[in-house]
Design a protein that fits this description.
mainly beta; three-stranded antiparallel β-sheet; 3 strands
Amino acid sequence: MAHYICTGTCNGVSDTPGTCQATDCPKHEEMLQPCDCTDEKHYGRQSHIKEAS
């Protein structure tokens, strides 16, 4: 399913196109990038993914 991601530090994901809404993200108010991955890894484009503890 197509979705949109922020490649900044917030690792935001949205079902609709738009801009990053995280005020503490360096990409705040920049356009989200389209992604069509099916494994929630976004082809490695979100390099700031936090590991689950």
